[in-house]
Automatic annotation (TrEMBL):
<feature type="DNA-binding region" description="H-T-H motif">
    <location>
        <begin position="48"/>
        <end position="67"/>
    </location>
</feature>
<dbReference type="GO" id="GO:0003700">
    <property type="term" value="F:DNA-binding transcription factor activity"/>
</dbReference>
<dbReference type="InterPro" id="IPR039536">
    <property type="entry name" value="TetR_C_Proteobacteria"/>
</dbReference>
<feature type="domain" description="HTH tetR-type">
    <location>
        <begin position="25"/>
        <end position="85"/>
    </location>
</feature>
<dbReference type="InterPro" id="IPR050109">
    <property type="entry name" value="HTH-type_TetR-like_transc_reg"/>
</dbReference>
<keyword id="KW-0238">DNA-binding</keyword>
<dbReference type="InterPro" id="IPR009057">
    <property type="entry name" value="Homeodomain-like_sf"/>
</dbReference>
<dbReference type="Pfam" id="PF14246">
    <property type="entry name" value="TetR_C_7"/>
</dbReference>
<dbReference type="InterPro" id="IPR036271">
    <property type="entry name" value="Tet_transcr_reg_TetR-rel_C_sf"/>
</dbReference>
<protein>
    <recommendedName>
        <fullName>HTH tetR-type domain-containing protein</fullName>
    </recommendedName>
</protein>
<dbReference type="Pfam" id="PF00440">
    <property type="entry name" value="TetR_N"/>
</dbReference>
<dbReference type="InterPro" id="IPR001647">
    <property type="entry name" value="HTH_TetR"/>
</dbReference>
<dbReference type="GO" id="GO:0000976">
    <property type="term" value="F:transcription cis-regulatory region binding"/>
</dbReference>
<feature type="region of interest" description="Disordered">
    <location>
        <begin position="1"/>
        <end position="26"/>
    </location>
</feature>
<feature type="compositionally biased region" description="Basic and acidic residues">
    <location>
        <begin position="1"/>
        <end position="14"/>
    </location>
</feature>
Amino acid sequence: MQKRSSPDTEETPRKRGRPVQMDQETREGIVLDAVAELLGTCRLEDVSMAAIARKSGMSKRTLYTIFASREELLGATFARIGQTIFRPLEPGDEALSLEDRLDKLLTVNHMPQFEQAPLELLRAVVAEAPIYPGVAMQFDAEGRGALIRYLAAEIAQAAGAGEIVLDGMSSKDAAELLADMVMGNALHHLLTPLEPKPCDLSEEKRLRRKRAVSIFLNGLRPRG
């Protein structure tokens, strides 16, 4: 006599049919999330297509249908990271003073997965630059490059409104000067990895940013 299953133990029949298909944008987002997470925990050289495929739950074959190469994939990841770290001003920010507008543009929006290893990531990108120049160029263009573009546009607008006088200097040159004043020299930190760093630099960075913007604008204010 066949034993009947009770309602509590009876298995739910598995639905048949094709698995749900993700669109290209969704798959791309999953892959980029996986790369960003790997970059926060692994060395750049260990972020291989195989590792990315495992992390994203996709096959390498599928990965290559989304991104043609590791270089293209890392470039897209750095582009998205850059868009998160540095952002343009939002609607309504035009009501802020020029000093506050520049300060807001120069404020780094931190990503938690990179809190502990931003210099290590930069060091790895520099090391791979001769082999993967496209990755390094994308990293620069979407990171510091994006910041320079935002600052240059704001400085040009301020100069046109008579808030500052560039005196023959281009808005891009002025933007690079201000960014260097605020960000400091990364080369020193790259060359001194064993030098102890303070645990919390947020207040120190905020004060440096404020002072740099003030000194920068004092040098460009109209005289007389």
